[in-house]
Amino acid sequence: MSRITTAMVSQNALIDLQKSQKVLFEASNQTASQTKATDLKGYGSQTHTLVSSNRMIANIQSRIDNAAELDARLSMQDAVLTHSREVMEDLRSVILQDISLSGPSSIDAKIEEAFLVLKDSFNLEISGKSVFGGTRTDKPPVVAASVADLVANPIENAFEQGAQEQTVNVDGYQEISLAPVAAEAAEAAFDMLKTLAAGGPYGELTDAQVTALKGELAQFDTVIDGLVQLEARNGNTQSRITNAIERQTTQVNAIGATVGEITYVDLAEVAARLSNAQTTYQASASIFNTVRGLTLLDVL
């Protein structure tokens, strides 16, 4: 017959108390953190899946953040392209008005204004890098100093830029051109300003100047239409980037949901376990406190 001592009873009660403490501690931690474990070791065979998934989320989120910056850049590009088109439309309106009305012309001033707007627009920099400089981003692509400089030199001398457009990968496989090079986008507009300025100065318009200006009006449609097409292209690029952001955000959410299924606890289930653990702990503590003071005399 096995002998039972008060020491054995106390030891068993202590072991039960320690077990209930551990269960209570784990349930309390899971309730507070809402995760199943405090570190990767706690996930066992699912650790590799978690590490891979979190790395994938980080990579995709980085592309989303970069795409969001590109979206802001394209909004700025749209603004300068719109302004360039508007200043050329204003110049055409001034020419039409001055051809129709007698008196001093304001064409010279409008040409100067259009030149400055176009130069500033296509020399746009973001974070110190030229937007319309193609692959050469270290300096402004429009180098003509003035309208006079434009008139005195071949039109190609007005630009210094990279030969190719800047491209970027926005989603891991899709290459997108960000902006045309300045010469492609603005050469026709600058060439028109060069031709108009060469026919000046314009004070009281002469018959020869009126004839020459009328001949240039048709070219305005080509120049303005080219700028409109650039605006449309910019808008299309912006739509593609927006779609890439939305598509990748869906990916991040889907992977995040998978990670959540592995790491996050069922709060209702944990609450039930915590309640049970608290009850068990209280019972174990009560038993331990009772048996700790027992001796064989109490039993006998």
TrEMBL record:
GO terms for molecular function: structural molecule activity. InterPro entries: Flagellin, Flagellin_C. It is found in: Bacterial flagellum. Keywords: Bacterial flagellum. Residues 220-288 form the Flagellin C-terminal domain. The keyword Translocase does not apply. Gene3D superfamilies: f41 fragment of flagellin, N-terminal domain (1.20.1330.10). The keyword Disulfide bond does not apply. One of its GO terms (cellular component) is bacterial-type flagellum. Pfam families: Flagellin_C. It comes from the Bacteria. Belongs to the bacterial flagellin family. This is Flagellin C-terminal domain-containing protein. It comes from Hirschia baltica (strain ATCC 49814 / DSM 5838 / IFAM 1418).
